[in-house]
Amino acid sequence: MVPLIGPGQSDTACIDNALELLVIGGGYSLAHAMMMLIPEAWAGNPLMDPQRRAFYEYHAALMEPWDGPAAIAFTDGRQIGATSTATACGRRATSSPTTTI
Asked: What pTM did the predictor assign?
C-alpha cells in the first residue's frame, strides 16, 4: 500500500490528499468529508443537536481531526463551503461549524 501522505509534504498537500481519498476513494460528499477532517468544537457544546453530536462522536472514533491552523474554503463546482480549526481561532472557539451554501 502506498502511503497517503508522503514525508516532506506541506500541510496543504496532506489535507488535500486526505480529502481526495475520502471524496473520490471513499464516496463521501465534500461537506461530509470536511466535517470529518475538521469537525466543529462539539465535545463541550451542550447546545448541540444530539444527532449532530452523534455524527461527530462516531467520526472521532474513525480518525483524528485536522489540528493544523487552517481556515479553509472548498468547492466541488456545485457546492461551496468554509470552515476553520480551533487553532486558527486561537483555541478560544467554542464552535466553528462547516457552512455550505
From this structure: 0.76
